[in-house]
Amino acid sequence: MLQTPRSRRGMVSAPHHLASQAGISVLRDGGNAVEATIAMAATLSVVYPHMCGLGGDGFWLVAEPGSAPRAIDACGATGRAVTPELYRSYTTIPRRGALAANTVAGAVAGWDAALGLVRGRGSPLPLERLLEDAIHYAEEGFAVSDGQAALTTEKLDQLAAVPGFAEQFLVDGCPPAAGQPMRLPTLAATLRRLGQAGLDDFYRGESARAIAADMARFGGCIDAADLAAHQAVLSPPLSLRIRGARLFNLPPPTQGLASLVILGLFDRLEVRHAEGFDHLHGLIEATKQAFLVRDQVVTDPAFGGDAAELYLRPASLDRLAARIARHKAMPWPAPPDGGDTVWLGAVDASGRAVSMLQSVFFEFGSGLVLPQTGIAWHNRGCGFSLTKPHSNPLAPRRKPFHTLNPAMAIFDDGRRLVYGTMGGEGQPQTQAAIFTRHAIFGQPLQQAVTAPRWLLGRTWGDDYTGLRLESRFDPQLVEALRLAGHAVELVAPFTPMMGHAGAILRRSDGFLEGAADPRGDGAVAMF
């Protein structure tokens, strides 16, 4: 995928083509960008269940025409009974099973909060219409994607015995083949109920009662009171001024701070050319400084911690930039982090722009599938620490550290860019690659997404702490990075390890440009 598609009336980008089609159909029916994003998120919950679902979390940036973005934190907290004592026989929180399902799923509350921002501003389409495509695919069937088939096989030993997983995601006890039809009728019934009763039913209605009953049956950590206590949080986003633009991202407990710090530091390096040593080395070294700040600062803000805005002040960024050696790599051990996520973007004819991420964390989350609702519950809470002191210790009603951080930029010339990716710790790095290639060095948007990428640090289940580069990079550049002290490993040319990115730009003349990642199953849809 090399050419950047363009249109005028509306555009969406999602990591699965059926979700993109669901979003653009909502725009064609008179819906707005928020409604299109909900239609895509719901559809992905069905056709991309290894990446996201009703049982996960989400984060939003929503910008009305002529206004700065609003942030929505749709992250769930641990249950009131989730204490270190619950895990007294463990050294770490289990990554799969009922004890991994220890935080409320906040994604659906995020949908509701986003709808609240646009109610009374044209449309709104009925909620049943927004969930229509998701219900259809869940009832009538969809073709299993290559990614779902591969990851079901790869992770089967971890997931097969978790309650509900085999019944929902295996076929005669075996992983489905790519292209094989799959139906999720119980999940369809849940989506239909939400469409009729309203999204709040997930937390305080019939759906909530079914969720709580199944959690109690299987030893999960979330009860009816935990669900009823959950609310999505609206707030101003973090922002950073760089040359030519203002950048926006999510505040803690997300790593949005890291994404902004990377670009703030790179702005100070004044690199002149794309794709050379200075470009990659500068972003990699900026990433190291940003991650050191992130690991020190980012936690549930309700439990304290330094204000993230302090680290976006010019003097703070100047000090961090001074630590970057222009020709030498800083030694780098990095904490492992995995996760599976989807980025969604939409811009409607009025210029309303949405950047959104939704996730179940690891592939299929905890693996626990609740039989009365068909909801696969996430395992974001497995990232809490059982040891003290720690920046993210386990405690009741505490939000976990989140890798999710949708991005947006508003340029001085009137352009608006929404962009993001899945990929755990790779998210800030891929965001930096896309933004610098397109916004600073002028590459067409699709080229900026398609171009070879890199990933610093370990991925889940892997001890490699060096730098992975897709094998399409110039061999001379690879050698220069090695000579500077980077421990480089070459990987497949379009590996999903590098995330499934997307972006939409609204030009100052009203035309839209979009990009979807050839590493995934997604597409840009427009009219």
Describe the structure.
It contains 18 helices and 21 strands. It is of the alpha+beta class. The chain has one domain. The strands form 5 sheets. A 7-stranded antiparallel sheet has the order 1-20-19-15-14-9-8. A hairpin with a 4-residue loop joins strand 14 and strand 15. Helix 5 runs antiparallel to helix 9, helix 13 packs antiparallel against helix 14 and helix 13 packs across helix 15. The longest helix is centred in the middle third of the chain and has 21 residues. The mean pLDDT is 94.
List keywords for this structure.
single chain, 527 residues, alpha+beta, seven-stranded antiparallel β-sheet, 21 strands, 34% helix, globular
Provide a short characterization of the protein structure.
With 527 residues, the chain is α+β, with helices and mostly antiparallel strands. 34% of the residues lie in helices and 18% in strands. The strands form five sheets. Strands 1-20-19-15-14-9-8 form a seven-stranded antiparallel β-sheet. Strands 7-4-3-11-10-2-21 form a seven-stranded antiparallel β-sheet. The protein has a three-stranded mixed β-sheet with strand order 16-17-18.
